[in-house]
Every structure is written in C-alpha cells, then in structure tokens.
Q: What sequence folds into this?
C-alpha cells in the first residue's frame, strides 16, 4: 500500500478526526488577522509576567519556578520549524503560563485566592469547599492536563503522524509521563536546595500523597480535554 507524504507545515490536514487539534491543519494558513489574536495574547502574558516579576514573595523560588517556563518557550520556538500550533493551542498554553506566573509570584502554597474570593463574595472559598490547605497548586496541575493535552495532540498528529484512537490516548499518556517527570524534578530540586527554598518549591503542605494527587489531576484534565476533542471531531466529521 502506497504511503502518502506527510502534509507540509502550511498544508491543510484532514482525516476522520477533522483538522488536527480542532484547527492545527490550518495553522500554517493563518493570515494577518489570524496571527493578531495570539500576538495580542502573548503581549498580554508578557505584561503580566513582567508585573509579577516585580517583588515576588520569594525571589529564589520565583527563579526556580520560571526555569521551566524559559525551557518551554525555547521548545515552542524550536518546534516552529516543524509545526505551527493552532490559535486555540497557543491560547491554551498562554493561559496556563499566566496561571503559573501567579503561582510563581506568590509561591504556590501562598497564593491568596481565598482572600480574593472573600473580598468578592464575603465568604471564604476554602471554608465553603471544606479545604484545609491552599489548593492553587492542585488547580495548576489540573490545568496542565486540560490546557496542554491539545497542543501535545497537535504535535503528535503533525510530527509523529499518529491517527485515530492513539491520537487521543497518547496525549493523555504524555501528559501523565511529563507530570511524573516534573514531580521527580521537583523532588530532586527540593533535596538539592533544601531549607525553605526546597520546601517552597516542593509545596507539599504536609500532604504525603501530594505528588500522587497532582499527577492524578493532570491526568484528569488531559482526559477531559481528549474526550471533548473526540466528541468535537466526531461532530465535525458528521457535518461534512
């Protein structure tokens, strides 16, 4: 059976799942208007990042937290040679990075979301939900899976050329494996630096199952994202 050549970076790619990642196949065709939205979002993120870089709660922890952000940005720039992410994927990644910037500024265990909620509603969010710890880090791990599974799927569709079931399962698998890798990096950094810096970076807050829960929430976020992508892909296929 003859194997067709993979689509060029700017070529539309359609299959039983529809365009890759809900639009990755057309990513190379973004015109001036299509590029404007992500550019504006990137500028807004850069402005937020710079504002939160001023007097963070703990400068050493802030530097550690942003080391992986720099690595991610470099990775995305390198990948542009083979893949231009769809606008939706770019928005998702920038949204996650914005949430991460808030956590890095305050350190994850000290983000005052409960105080913000109390000022807005007059009631404590932790008290209403029965939480006994600061759960901002839990939100970030869940959002990692929810917001990065689609960009991961776009990469696998365009570069690795996976199709069908595997195009939905492998992003979940990659999300869980990278989440586990991050937990190992976090543990190694905490042991290496020790003291308050190590404790702030690890952010366990006395929960011995912290790493397990973080990975489970990342997997849950990725699962929801892939279920939504699968349903959306089927719906788009039926409409054609």
A:
């Amino acid at each position: 059976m003859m194997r067709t050549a993979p689509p060029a970076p700017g070529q539309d790619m359609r299959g039983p799942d529809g365009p890759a990642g809900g639009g990755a196949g057309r990513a190379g065709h973004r015109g001036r208007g299509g590029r404007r939205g992500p550019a504006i979002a990137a500028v807004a993120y850069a402005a937020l990042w710079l504002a939160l870089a001023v007097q963070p709660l703990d400068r050493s922890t802030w530097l550690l937290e942003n080391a992986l952000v720099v690595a991610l940005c470099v990775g995305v720039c390198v990948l542009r040679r083979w893949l231009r992410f769809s606008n939706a994927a770019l928005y998702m990644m920038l949204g996650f990075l914005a949430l991460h910037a808030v956590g890095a500024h305050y350190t994850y265990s000290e983000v005052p979301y409960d105080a913000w909620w109390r000022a807005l509603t007059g009631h404590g969010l932790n008290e209403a939900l029965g939480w006994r710890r600061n759960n901002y880090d839990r939100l970030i791990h869940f959002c990692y899976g929810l917001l990065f599974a689609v960009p991961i799927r776009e990469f696998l569709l365009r570069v690795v050329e996976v199709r069908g079931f595997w195009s939905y399962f492998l992003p979940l698998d990659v999300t869980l494996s990278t989440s586990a890798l991050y937990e190992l990096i976090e543990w190694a950094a905490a042991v290496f630096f020790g003291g308050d810096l190590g404790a702030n970076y690890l952010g366990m807050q006395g929960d011995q199952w912290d790493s397990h829960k973080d990975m489970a929430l990342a997997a849950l976020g990725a699962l929801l994202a892939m279920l939504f992508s699968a349903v959306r892909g089927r719906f788009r296929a039926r409409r054609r």
